[in-house]
Write a sequence for this structure.
């Protein structure tokens, strides 16, 4: 997993509308890249809704919010539309960005161990440097938690 001080790896991947989103094109703005396991599941929905509900305040702080999972463009579109997300959701079906950020690894669920997307977020500054890593994301308060870090 990337650490504070690392340069965020660039990626160019399709968003929920099929447009190519490039991280490098966001230079000059802060970017919150949040990785989530699967669109429209309870935890991912809670996390996305928390970011949605705090989106205006994040925009006021010059933060671009970008969600990434290995879901298809169509599934991301359905998720974004259903929950009225005002931010971009990236379809990383091959796991390019997931792997580059180190957001893939061993997980446990109901006693079962498997590899999957680690729910994590990375706050990146205007020059492309990671300034904060959220490795233990609280889904229901993630938007607030990001804002607290931005206040420091």
């Amino acid at each position: 997993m990337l650490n504070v001080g690392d340069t965020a790896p660039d990626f160019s991947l399709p968003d929920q509308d099929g447009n190519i989103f490039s991280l490098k094109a966001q230079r000059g703005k802060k970017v919150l890249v949040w990785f989530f396991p699967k669109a429209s599941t309870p935890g991912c929905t809670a996390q996305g809704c928390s970011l949605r509900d705090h989106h205006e305040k994040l925009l006021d702080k010059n933060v671009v919010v970008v969600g990434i999972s290995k879901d298809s463009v169509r599934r991301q579109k359905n998720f974004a539309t259903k929950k009225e997300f005002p931010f971009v959701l990236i379809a990383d079906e091959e796991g390019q960005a997931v792997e580059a950020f180190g957001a893939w690894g061993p997980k446990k669920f109901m006693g079962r161990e498997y590899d999957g997307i680690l729910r994590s977020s990375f706050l990146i500054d205007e020059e492309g440097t990671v300034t904060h890593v959220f490795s233990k994301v609280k889904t229901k308060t993630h938007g607030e938690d990001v804002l607290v870090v931005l206040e420091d």
Notes: The chain has five helices and nine strands.
